[in-house]
């Protein structure tokens, strides 16, 4: 039981135990250590910190702009102050930022993008289509604080596609989450679904040479980042030891008042990507040419594209499900393409995995999958247990999968109900804060979230287990779980 809860909390909070704070999540679920749970959920900013950790983002959608490359739309109405998405990427030093920007610049202002679209079908057949497109060089390095930057050029969340506007509807804010500074995109004003998201790059810009701004705002400053310190200083970097932008001068929203003061990361590691990496989810990966080239799969289902030579930058695209595969997912929502000319994409998420998809406008319309109940907490693609169960010959396997599915559905319903309890308080509030949320309701919500994760895990585990060890008679979703190195009755290693 303890191990199960640890597994749940582990997947919930990023796949890696990281000191005491994350351990306490387990205790929190067990109803212990309320002091700490209060810190996570009860502090005014705790809810946002929680959403950072959980990668609980506002629904957004990629679209192709006129002349500004890709952009990101709000795919639901967003209240002013609401946390939209984290700006994820690689955390790099100013030295590294300087070097990288030189490399990126050397690759040229106008690049030829190789765009790829991949389809994987059961049986491991794998097709890919690619085409070339000319485009402006895009810059994805933003400043975190003095001497540290986030580079989303190769790895990042969908936030990397948010364009600049001189009259923005979003802003960046820096938060400490469990002692780490992270950058979030927040709504500056109420934003209607379908509106392009944009923030002012001025204080974030690390884009090198001048890029003419096409935002169209009356107060347009003509160039991206025209007022940025980097732009003004021409060399676009802060030197080591430059303390003009120290953490103290940056408004920080600290989720944990009694946590030790800001910990600077020691090494160059992916920043804000723990959760994504460990769960293989919601990564936008971009590969570059030559020795810099890095290929990473953006979801468990994505085939690596090692064999394909790329010229400069290519956006990895996640496979579209084959018709066979579609069948085992529930199909409640239709993907609606924007009515415009544009190429479009959709981002889907589920607690099991998330895919980032980019499809061409000329591609056939594709269904998207979401669970039966449209829920803030559990949107995205969901396996249809009944269909999956039918694929198994063994009655026992079928029953187990169906039972786990039922438990999962109950957990989803409870989660939905518990979120409904705290939703009004959150939505009423001017900013994305949790001042008004009753702590016990918040606790219930955390518990329900963990229970849902656990149920999801058990459901998928039941399927995998029955594929790997079809003869296993007694394991049910409530019983045996894999322990390290443990053998099952057939001697198969989990
Ligand atoms: C962080 S990326 C934004 C996503 C980008 N449009 C893409 O397709 O990947 C920043 C780049 O987008 C383009 N961009 C963003 N805002 C723009 C604007 N207002 N006018 C012109 N280009 C813009 C510039 O090429 C810039 O280097």
TrEMBL record:
The keyword Ligase belongs to this UniProt entry's keyword annotation: no
Superkingdom of origin: Eukaryota
Keyword Methyltransferase in annotation: yes
GO terms of biological process kind: methylation
UniProt main location, coarse: nucleus
Gene Ontology cellular component list: chromosome; nucleus
Record-linked Pfam families: SET (PF00856)
PROSITE patterns: POST_SET (PS50868), SET (PS50280)
The name this protein goes by in its record: Uncharacterized protein
